[in-house]
Specification:
The structure is a homodimer.
Chain A: H1 3-21, H2 24-31, H3 35-40, H4 45-68, H5 75-90, H6 99-107, H7 113-135, H8 141-162, H9 166-180
Helix pairs in contact in A: 1-4, 1-6, 4-5, 4-7, 5-7, 5-8, 5-9, 6-7, 7-8, 8-9
The structure holds a DNA duplex (16 and 16 nucleotides).
Chain lengths: ~180, ~180
DNA sequence: CCTACCGATCGGTAGG
DNA sequence: CCTACCGATCGGTAGG
């Protein structure tokens, strides 16, 4: 079993159970491996968590960021980012809902390398949104990035907790109005 | 040690460690009680979790909802709700950040009574926001409630994960623009 | 409210 | 990659 294949399952499991609930024993059970077989690939639970965050970032880049590079920098790419971001969550790219929403809520008060890795992933995404907002000539790109990101976070929580698929329509409407300004 | 005093600590601990990370042993340690002494007050971990959600709801009502009843129904009360909501998170009414943001991310994919209780608390808050938006004459009160709530959720995450206190200024600016429409 | 205990599971190690 | 094990902690119980 390759490290890559293990991490595929680790990301899915972490989106469901959290990065702390991602236990080596449970992951081993799902992969039909021994605990120590999984353990040996990482050396510690912390390294498993860090590798899982990295794998989730790669999935997000492949799914959302890379395809949007076809669009022109500025407003067109910003729209593609928002569409990709919502579509990514809507089709449940992670079975437990957005990995990043779950990971940031879980680790925002646990200082250490895992928290730092989660923060860097989210900061990179906010930075991408702000860069395109700046390119589009918006007067406060960081403000726009914050608002667009918050709407996505809200849609994920609204759908997952309330079971209301209208969450994404609401998010699209909010984003449309924000970008039409 | 009264049940109420135990629940005070339970809410704080849950905001830091999550409702699953709120273990009976750890809570007992902080209260300098025996595990079974804490346990006997609730009968099961699930009952402790449910009582903790209830206590968090009471804290939110006392802190945010009740004071806003002084304001006139409609836009004035809606503004007070938003101000109270942000101030509640900004001064860290829960030491681990907004209890509800953490609890919804943790339980959104764990069916059962705890999830139901979290959902009901959040649905009640969204309903309050929508009711005032309707009273204020807004044309899609649920949409407004969704957007205002999402901005608060975003501000909590932005501040806690990125350590940026500007999160709340950004949230206030976004809410101001939304309500000025 | 307490001590003392149960089986299960945790992260991690020894040795192969 | 495996079996077998470690001490710690989990939710929960017995008995007082």
């Amino acid at each position: 079993m390759s490290r890559e294949a293990i991490l595929e399952r680790a990301v899915d499991l972490a989106s469901l159970e959290g990065l702390e609930g991602l236990t080596i024993g449970r992951l081993a059970g799902e992969l039909e491996m021994s605990k120590s077989g999984v353990f040996a690939n990482f050396g510690s639970k912390r390294e498993l968590q860090l590798a899982t965050v990295q794998a989730a970032a790669e999935r997000f880049v492949a799914d959302v960021i890379a395809p949007a590079q076809e669009a022109q920098a500025g407003l067109p790419r910003l729209r593609r980012y928002c569409e990709g971001y919502l579509a990514h969550m809507e089709r449940a790219a992670f079975p437990g809902g957005c990995f990043w929403a779950a990971a940031s809520a879980e680790f925002d008060d646990r200082p250490g390398p895992v928290r730092d890795a989660v923060r860097e992933g989210i900061a990179a995404w906010l930075g991408e949104l702000a860069a395109q907002a700046r390119e589009a000539g918006m007067d406060d790109p960081e403000q726009a990035a914050f608002e667009l990101w918050a709407v996505g976070l809200g849609a994920n929580a609204y759908r997952r907790l309330l079971g209301d698929e209208a969450a994404f329509d609401r998010a699209r409407r909010a984003i449309e109005e924000r970008l039409a300004e």
